[in-house]
Every structure is written in C-alpha cells, then in structure tokens.
Amino acid sequence: MIGSGIFIVSADIVRNVGSAGALIGIWILTGFLTVAAALSYGELSGMFPKAGGQYVYLKEAFNSLTGFLFGWSFFAVIQAGTIAAVGVAFSKFAAYIFPSLSEKMLLQI
Questions:
Q1: What SS3 class is residue 3?
Q2: Is the model's pTM score more than 0.85?
Q3: Which of 12, 77, 95, 100 has its CA 20 to 30 A from that of 47?
Q4: CA distance 14 to 23
Q5: Is residue 109 one of the residues assigned to a domain?
Q6: 57-60: long-range contacts, CB 8 A cutoff, minimum separation 24
Q7: CB 96 within 8 A of CB 83
Q8: Are residues 64 and 28 in the same domain?
Q9: In a domain, 105, yes or no
Q10: Total domains present in the chain
C-alpha cells in the first residue's frame, strides 16, 4: 500500500538533500528497509500465530506490561496521529478539486 506520505514528504526530502537523484536513492533505501521489516513480521507471525500483532510480539519478547503500554499508546497516540495525517493530506489535495476547501478560505460564521 502506498500511503499519502509519498505525495507530501517528497518535497521536504528534496529540499533537505538537494537533488531528485538523492530522493530516488532515499526511496530505494527505505524500500529495502520496508521489505526487511515485512519479512521480519512474516517470521514473527509464523513464530507466534496469535491474534494481536505487535502487542503479542512485544508481550512475548519482553513482558505483559510492555505489550499493554504499546496497545494503549497505539490506540491513543499512534493511530490517532495517522488518521490526522491522512485527513490533512486529503484536505490538502481535495483543495485542488474544490477550491473552497483551501487553507486560504476562512470559515466565517
């Protein structure tokens, strides 16, 4: 799955590294890291065939408290931040189709 980050973050990366070639290199490097992470999760899911994903892996590797804290931080912070980022990306790109949604338009009551 390609998320909205690829459309938002690319300009910032080019601004920091200075060239489009370096941007492609960074995307290739992070692609390899993503494949390594996916293979690692595949191995973990084979070792611990239980429902719960990262919660189960952390609970088995460390202890129940670590899994519990991860579960609640995922629920309260990580997932909420992800949903907010997708909402910002949606509104940013929807403003090209619907100019009334752009950040230059102010809501006046």
A1: coil
A2: no
A3: 77
A4: 6
A5: no
A6: none
A7: no
A8: no
A9: no
A10: 2
- HEC string of 10-57 equals HHHHHHHHCCHHHHHHHHHHHHHHHHHHHHHHHHHHHHCCCCCCHHHH
Residue 58 and residue 66 in contact, taking contact as beta carbons nearer than 8 Å: yes
Q: Are residues 37 and 73 in the same domain?
A: no
Same domain, yes or no, for 4 and 43? yes
**Cα separation of 70 and 32, whole Å?**
26
Helix%, strand%, coil% for the chain, nearest 5: 80, 0, 20
Residue 74 lies in a domain: yes
The answer to whether residues 68 and 37 belong to one domain is no
| Max CA separation in the chain (angstroms) | 57
Q: What is the pLDDT of residues 26-44, one digit of tens each?
A: 989 989 999 999 999 888 8
Q: Which residue has the tokens 């949903």?
A: 83
All residue ranges of the chain with pLDDT < 70 are 1-4, 106-109
